[in-house]
Amino acid sequence: MFILAPSDYTAILLSIKVAVTATVLSLPFGFAAAWLITYGRFRGKVVLEVMTNLPLTLPPVVIGYLLLLLLGSNGFLGRLLGSIGIRLIFTWRAAVIATAVVGFPLMVRSIRLAMESIDPDLVHAARTLGATRFNAILTVILPLSLQGLIAGSSLMFARGLGEFGATIIVAGNIPGVTQTIPMAIFEYASSPSGDTMALMLCVVSIAISIVVLLLHEYLCKQTMRAD
Amino acid sequence: MELHIALQKHFASFTLDVDSTLQGNRIGLFGPSGSGKSTLVSLIAGLQQAESGRIVLDGELLYDTSRRINVSPDKRRIGIIFQRPHLFPHLNVKNNLLYGFKRSTAGNRTIDFDALTDVLRIDHLLDRGVNNLSGGEKQRVAIGRAVLSNPRLLLMDEPLSGLDDTLRFQIISYLKSACEIFAIPSLFISHSLLEMRLMTDQVLSIEQGRIIEETTPENLSRSRMGLNPAGYVNLMKVTSPTQCEDMCAYSWGNTELLISGKSDQPDSLFELSSKDIILFKRHPEAISARNLLQCVVSGIFESGGKVGVELGCGDERLVAEVVHQVVGELDITVGSTLFAAIKASAFRRLG
């Protein structure tokens, strides 16, 4: 029998909400970072590259802890936001930030791959045809890296659904507030009678992932057809 | 069009250092690959920057390192036709064509869309995606896209090198008519002497990043005759073909030429190497070559150890290539009469 507790539904919805918000928020920044790395010529480009890729190699717990130091009530950003009445730690917003940071390198990588495959002469052609630098980004680079944007978003969304280490440190595991699917599974798995419930959530996880992958394939085919 | 360029840019293998004022509407930039031609194109268009120098186009300063002026490529109104078409794959033919047009200011829009698509014969392709076009169609769309951006100068960076011979001469005629009908000055870049002669009136010869010679395409071809394995290439426009067996008789000026092969077009362009012309002092009794033309020597020139003999056949000109001894033996002087024998199979169709 497929049964889910009411708190599980909340966890599923929250997981999706966090992953979608983190992905959507990261898109413009991911595009900008990928553009800077692919086309930018400036000092400190290596630093930018390393910084974007760092979350990929760091343990998520480390990222979570660093975020806690930064966003906590004694942290630099935490204090700044606190002074205008915004508290992030142990809210779903903190989960969004943690998910965004952890998934960011995946998004940048995908967009970068797409951008690097764009012939630079296409951009040159656009410039000599009267497009300003920004206009060429908007009308040539953006549409031609669409597949990278789709791939990056799917990857980041999927990664976001499974985010655990960083999230549990900055957002905690508060049922109904910050408890996402992985946290709920963790809690069920820690209790002696939770096996079935944990398994149910695993099935849900797998189902969401398959839907995301299918959607990704579909969107990629659509953009290819538009070519 | 008047274009003044004084530019210096260093590379690992050579230094580009040019200082020249180009005046005219059909200028060529001739040189081997790696001589700096394409770099010069990028500098003029503003896609790359020189370390020092200035660029002035029709009195407008586009680039000047001493005054820190660098007009961005989108403001220069200099169009480029690249080696490959570089059409935007996400736009259809019509939107590719209109890309530059939409971004040009209303006051500069002199090119009529319908007239242009008609000249380039792409009016039936407008709704197609660019990935389904043939090579020739793509290059025609690329020409149209550049012309429709209403440039005051069109840079053509070896636009024919990616095409096979048949297509090359088709595209040349489109390029020529687009530039002529819409009166756009062009700077044509190539390493092909033949293309220079078809596309330009004057030529700058560039080697190792320096302009070494400013001449006409005709003189350039003559000066390279002796060194060129194909000799000097005579370009012959012939008309009104009539089929006789496996050959075709054409009118060339007021002379008739027999050329191997069939023809279904009223006009044709053939090339004939200066090496494929045999000269006789007197009319030979019998000869296997199908063309024997009575000519008058109108000029003699020296090129790379060989002698070029310019022959007048009616209103037309031919250049034959001989070795030095022949000039004495046949007593070739300006004004003397010679017979030129050409095999019907020596001609090569260009378009």
Verbal overview:
The complex is a heterodimer of chains A (227) and B (351). Chain A is an all-alpha fold and 227 residues long. Chain A is built from 11 helices and no strands. Chain A is globular. Chain B is α+β, with helices and mostly antiparallel strands. Chain B has 2 domains: 222 residues, 3-Layer(aba) Sandwich (Rossmann fold); 117 residues, OB fold (Dihydrolipoamide Acetyltransferase, E2P) (Beta Barrel), CATH 2.40.50.100. Chain B has 9 helices and 21 strands. The longest helix of chain B is centred in the middle third of the chain and has 17 residues. The mean pLDDT of chain B is 92.
Key phrases:
heterodimer, A: 227 residues, mainly alpha, MetI-like fold, 11 helices, globular, B: 351 residues, alpha+beta, Rossmann fold, OB fold (Dihydrolipoamide Acetyltransferase, E2P), 9 helices, 21 strands
CATH topology of chain A: MetI-like fold
Structural class assignment of chain A: mainly alpha
Principal-axes geometry of chain B comes out as globular
Structural class of chain B: alpha+beta
Please state roughly what percent of the residues of chain A sit in beta strands, choosing from under 5%, 5-15%, 15-25%, 25-35%, 35-45% or over 45%.
under 5%
User: For this structure, what is the CATH class of the largest domain in chain B?
Assistant: Alpha Beta
- Strand percentage of chain B: 35-45%
Number of helices of chain B: 9
Uncertain stretches of 5 or more adjacent residues of chain B: none
Low-confidence stretches of chain A: none
Number of strand segments of chain B:
21
CATH class type of chain A = Mainly Alpha
The CATH homology group name of the largest domain in chain B: P-loop containing nucleotide triphosphate hydrolases
